[in-house]
Amino acid sequence: MPRSVNKSLSLALFCLVAFVYCSQAPKPDPRLANAFRNPPQNNWVYVHLQGTPSDIGYQNGYLLATEISDLKQVDMVEEQHNDKKDWNWLRQQAQTVMWPKIEPEYQQEMQGIADGVTARGGKLDVWDVVAMNAMLEWSYYVEQWNKDHGAKGTQTALLDNEGDHCSAFVATGKWTRDGKIVMAHNDWTSYLDGARWNIIYDIQPSNGQHFMMDGLPGVIHSADDFGVNASGIMITETTISDFHGYDFNGVPEFVRARKAMQYATSIDEFAKIMEAGNNGGYANDWLVADRKTNEIASLELGLKNVTLDRSKNGYFVSSNFPINPKLTKEETTFNVHDLGASANARHVRWLQLMAQYKGKIDVAAAQKFEADHYDTFLKKDNAPSERTLCGHHDLSPRGETPYNDSGAVQNKAIDSDMAAKMEFTAASGHACGMNFNSAAWLAAHPQFAWQKSVLKDMDAFPWTTITAGEAKSGQ
Questions:
Q1: Counting CB atoms within 10 angstroms of each CB, which of 46, 187, 204, 219 has the fewest?
Q2: Residue-wise pLDDT tens digits, 281-310
Q3: What CATH number was assigned to the domain covering residues 30-467?
Q4: Burial of 96 by CB count in 10 Å (0-12 exposed, 13-18 middle, 19+ buried)?
């Protein structure tokens, strides 16, 4: 056979094999076409999600499948220990009680998350996803369920101190350097989930506003509720300390929080969305700002008592301190007179800083506030503990079980100009720069051995500016 013919046959055979291979090779899922994940930047994992609710969910689950599966294990361990309920019970409650109150848009997104994780070989379903999204509501839910069912003695110490975490402020007018809005927040939680609270979501939904928020892997809301949308609405909150009450017929808090982030274009719209179907779960003092009007607000959202205060020249501070005396009396067991309590001590510190920095508050000052270690009860600086704005329950000499396994796990700050560009600055870990070493801490606190299988180190990273729509760096 002539060499030229042999060469032609070989080429034809190669093309045939290539055709068969390409026709059988799995094609990229079209739902991932507009989504991407960037390499970590100072521990922040940035993901861009875009499209229909189902698309966004699938992208979330697919891109963060490993992190979501890991967080599920953490949630299972925490709930069994803290609320004395196994995961199957929570899944059943998520399905029968919460699911019917969730509108189809978010049902589709959570089903998409489960589908995305499954496509990557993970093992979880939509009821796992709902239970994970409700993580911050379960203590309220379980406490009320126990009361309603006469399950005495099953509440935990966690419920008796619910809410002692997170510090935040928002200021405008004569209080800031340029007269525009400045907002900041640090997230206090257990180091178990705190070390995993490092996702930045940039979401362009088919309906509503483009928005950016921090969050946990596999959630549809921020969970610590910090974010900004394209309409110029900036949002954050801190939990109301020692709050008690839950309405099983209401809409889950995580659904209302996500809807407000996605659809609110004014402070009034934000308040309306958060109040509609309020179930009392994860009761917060919400700080919200509108870049368009330079107005700020505080929405203290109890189950029975709701207060909306607004200002175009002032500030609102939040440290889990209940504001409305009627709400404090009727819906909490919080002692406003105990100045050694975390929420009270931090509230005093916020007032001091607002007075000291009047007319000088900017993002740089906000970053400094987030790292503050001044204890107003002891009148002492460099005394990190649960009384300082940069919270360190693990360093408290008071050993407030179960909170001495928690602290400020990450920090964010934003101003009006940054909001216009859909960006904010964030620091993963303690803003003060202190690291958390899990092995050393467990060795010194054997009562927390139940965390050993899932507890991780939590290092502190520098402040990083993150902008929505960032390019696919390194992809």
A1: 204
A2: 999 999 999 999 999 999 999 999 999 999
A3: 3.60.60.30
A4: exposed
